[in-house]
Write a structure and sequence with these properties.
alpha+beta, 269 residues, six-stranded antiparallel beta barrel, 7 strands, single chain
Length: 269
């Protein structure tokens, strides 16, 4: 259908080196402005070696392109889909929220970053990392996938989030719905279950570029406040002014800002 063709064009355009180079430049600038921590293994972006790993910020451009497609179709349900993509994402920092089958939960505590190994829907090994410190007895385990950049044809791809479920989501590389996972170098084994269409989510979204602005650009320990961001903060008096604008536009309501408000309710049909 037309929606699928549009999404297919996203994959093709992002496979084009020159197109990706332009998007990489924008994403690199964005990530540096956000003050991300240094990576020990930065990605070579066409001869430029950034101090930060910007791969997941590149993937946000796929979220943006997906929103554009939904808005272009312009049906009411597509506006809802676009808002869902804005809030919940689809392509960046994919992670699974699994539930251990044993009600007694973890037998040992796990540190954030502990390595995880499981099996994908395609039958391949899935690698990931625990997303936060976990205590003995916990049963809900968030696991961030460690994957290369998005490729629809790659068996390691797992993109779900708020992407349309028919023809757009890719679960080949997601953990299968039930099985075993192994934690750490000791490879302690646990049985688990989850729903690969519901419980694969995204840690980084377009909305979070604004909702995390206070933490990353106003009160951080390294270089805060960021000069350009602070100019806008002084004007609007809230750090998440960008999110307030977008959310009000989707909901057709009025923004709540110190100044510069706009009333989107006038566009209600």
């Amino acid at each position: 259908n037309s929606r699928w063709k549009l999404y297919l064009n996203i994959s093709k355009s992002f496979a084009d080196r020159s197109t990706m180079k332009m998007r990489a430049t924008a994403a690199i600038s964005l990530s540096l402005c956000l003050g991300l921590s240094s990576s020990d293994d930065p990605t070579d972006s066409w001869g430029y070696w950034p101090k930060t790993d910007v791969t997941e910020f590149l993937a946000l451009d796929l979220d943006k392109a997906s929103m554009d497609i939904e808005l272009r179709i312009a049906a009411a349900s597509n506006y809802e889909s676009a808002f869902g993509l804005y809030k919940d994402g689809g392509f960046s920092h994919s992670y699974a929220e699994i539930t251990l089958s044993d009600p007694q939960g973890l037998r040992i505590p796990l540190d954030e970053g502990t390595l995880v190994e499981g099996t994908s829907n395609a039958g391949n090994v899935v690698n990931g990392k625990v997303m936060k410190d976990l205590d003995i007895g916990e049963v809900d385990i968030p696991i961030r996938y460690t994957y290369p950049p998005y490729d629809k044809t790659d068996a390691t791809t797992c993109v779900v989030g708020s992407l349309p479920s028919i023809g757009i989501q890719v679960v080949n590389g997601c953990l299968k719905n039930s099985g075993k996972v192994y934690f750490g170098t000791s490879l302690s084994q646990y049985h688990y279950s989850y729903n690969d269409r519901r419980d694969n989510q995204n840690e980084l979204t377009v909305q979070k570029l604004s909702s995390m602005a206070e933490e990353l650009m106003l009160v951080c320990d390294d270089g805060c406040p960021h000069n350009m961001f602070y100019k806008y903060f002084k004007y609007y008096k809230v750090p998440d002014y960008g999110d307030r604008w977008i959310t009000a536009a989707f909901n057709l309501t009025k923004t709540v800002l110190y100044r510069g408000n706009v009333d989107f309710s006038r566009y209600k049909s």
